[in-house]
Write a structure and sequence with these properties.
The two termini are 26 Å apart. Helix 1 crosses helix 2 and helix 14 packs antiparallel against helix 16. A six-stranded mixed beta sheet has the order 1-10-9-6-2-3, sandwiched between helices. Strands 15-14-13-12-17-16 form a six-stranded mixed beta sheet. The chain folds into two domains: 254 residues, Rossmann fold (3-Layer(aba) Sandwich), CATH 3.40.50.11440; 169 residues, LarA, C-terminal domain (2-enoyl-CoA Hydratase, Chain A, domain 1, Alpha-Beta Complex), CATH 3.90.226.30. The chain has 18 helices and 18 strands. The chain has 429 residues and is α/β, with parallel strands linked by helices. It is globular, with a radius of gyration of 21 Å.
Length: 429
């Protein structure tokens, strides 16, 4: 690790100064006079982390030095940004310098994590190899610097987000994304959440060690937490080019972003309308709260931007066809599916169906801005009218944590579920 800074509240200007320090260190340690620079931020679903304006600052620094600077949002299989979204997130970075990751046909396989290793780290739960396929623009760019920026926060697939997830999911090809997501689902979402080094993270660490040594790269990772006023603020910055950089950030996130609560009967969560348009990403509300919900409890998700299920048409069709119907049923359907069938061809969708189910343990209710009751109920969720829901549970009038409604109903409110993890003590990993 090159450097870190931790505080109860790191200001906007301090973050920018640390970004400038990161750039200086990269020039000292990797390339003194870079001519071609690639910046790898998260996509718009992590916009609240400040990664957009951090990347904009790095863009300004290196273009001022005369470098040719490019940017790829690490989308994975999420929907590409519109020009308007790019401008909102990345400010003055020109649209022609922002490239789209094509997860279906824009990558090349450069190796694999062997099945023997996958079997070992998964405790025998998974026995397939994971292809290592990466974005062609990354592989063929002759880069002098490749600089990652991102938010380390509890994550349903990898335990914690960011670090080499930027490559192997964010810029991964379809075969890698499918194989890795299904592996994580087989290992169990509640086993993954909040774990520093999950079985899949071990696979990614091996893939980075075996295949990415040619990249002149480094990481700039932020950790955020709620302050006393309930505002999400930066509390840590970790910069470096090794796994310890990730571990330092993840340990901080583990301490700051996991809230231990008693079993909760009702959670009301908000998925912001300018970031979350599909259940593929809005289901983070389910992932991050499932370990806190009591048997028979309810999660009510207010999602004003919700307009579809999947980020891609094929995934949307899979969700509509099978619904979030539980691990046992989904895996039965997967095993019965022919090799060229939808659940095997898009195994990432199969994993998503598993992650998004309550397994019958609690109720999931969506209050969507742009989807019908018929749509929501068809995928095994409950429906609530968003206008009535917002009238009763006005986010502007609720505080994070326990709230008592005028009629005596007690709820637990979460304004940004994607920024943390909530769990009972007995379910912590």
């Amino acid at each position: 690790m090159w450097f870190k800074q931790e505080s109860s509240n790191i200001s906007h200007e301090q973050i920018l100064e640390l970004a400038r320090q990161y750039a200086d260190e990269a020039k000292k340690r990797i390339c003194a006079n870079p001519k071609r620079v690639l910046l790898l931020p998260p996509d718009i679903t992590r916009a609240h982390s400040g990664s957009g304006w951090i990347v904009e600052e790095l863009y300004k620094i290196f273009t001022a030095d005369g470098a040719d600077v490019h940017l790829i949002p690490t989308l994975g299989q999420h929907v590409p940004h519109t020009p308007e979204q790019n401008k909102w997130m990345f400010g003055s970075v020109p649209e022609e310098k922002i490239h789209v990751h094509d997860w279906r046909s824009g990558s090349t396989v450069i190796g694999e994590v062997p099945s023997s290793f996958v079997r070992e780290v998964s405790g025998g739960k998974v026995d397939w190899a994971i292809p290592v396929s990466l974005d062609n623009f990354l592989l063929n760019g002759n880069w002098d610097l490749v600089l990652n920026v991102g938010h380390v926060v509890p994550h349903e697939v990898l335990g914690f987000a960011n670090h080499n997830k930027n490559y192997f999911i964010g810029l991964g090809g379809k075969d890698m994304i499918c194989a890795s997501h299904l592996m994580a689902a087989c290992c169990g979402i509640e086993n993954n959440l909040g774990t520093l080094t999950t079985p899949l993270r071990k696979c990614f660490n091996k893939a980075e060690e075996d295949y990415l040594g040619f990249l002149p790269d480094a990481y700039f990772e932020v950790v955020m937490a709620y302050d006393a006023e309930g505002k999400l603020v930066h509390t840590g910055v970790y910069a470096g080019d090794d796994v310890e950089t990730y571990l330092e950030a993840a340990r901080a996130s583990q301490k700051q972003n996991i809230t231990v609560v008693p079993p909760l009967k009702k959670i009301v969560a908000v998925m912001q309308g300018d970031e979350f348009y599909s259940t593929w990403v809005a289901n983070k509300a389910i992932y991050r709260t499932r370990k806190a919900l009591a048997q028979g409890g309810e999660l009510l998700i207010i999602a004003p931007g919700l307009e579809r299920f999947g980020e891609q048409p094929e995934i949307d069709a899979i969700i509509r066809k099978y619904g979030y119907s539980g691990t046992e049923n989904v895996m039965r359907l997967y095993r019965e599916c022919p090799d060229d069938g939808d659940l095997k061809n898009f195994a990432v969708g199969t994993a998503h169906l598993i992650h998004g189910s309550s397994e019958g343990r609690f109720k999931i209710t969506y209050a969507p801005g742009k989807m019908s009751q018929k749509d929501i109920e068809s995928v095994c969720f409950n429906y609530a009218d968003i206008n009535e829901t917002l009238k009763r549970y006005n986010p502007a009038e609720l505080k994070n944590g326990f709230n008592t409604m005028p009629d005596g109903e007690e709820i637990y409110f979460i304004s940004t579920p994607s920024a943390g993890l909530w769990s009972t003590a007995d379910r912590l990993n």
